[in-house]
Amino acid sequence: FPHDPGSLIRxxxxxxxxxxxxxxxxxxxxxxxxxxxxxxxxxxGGAETDMLVNRQAxxxxxxxxxxxxxxxxxxxRRVHAPFVTLVAERxxxxxxREDLCGAGILRVA
Length: 109
Fold this sequence. Notes:
This protein is of the alpha+beta class. It has one domain (5-102). The chain has helices spanning 5-13, 27-30, 55-78, 92-102, and strands at 21-25, 36-41, 48-53, 83-87. It has a two-stranded parallel sheet with strand order 1-4. Strands 2-3 form a two-stranded antiparallel sheet. A hairpin with a 6-residue loop joins strand 2 and strand 3. Helix 1 packs parallel to helix 3. The protein is globular.
């Protein structure tokens, strides 16, 4: 994640009347499995790197993801903004009805 969570959230909240922060992950990003040697391609920037996706790499990734989510939650609490992580494969209806309503981002009419 290329941004400092504190700076990012403060910048987004500055002058905003409301802020909701949503982290969208794929199921594999949320809970990766070993894949062996792979070429990873950043779909946003196009950068490529070869990586061994093994237990050690996954453990490091999960540690960094947890640290990022913890920092984002803390920074969001400071500016009274809900933070929620969604797993895309759960489907839009489920995400809206359960996760986003549960976080107070959406309300059932």
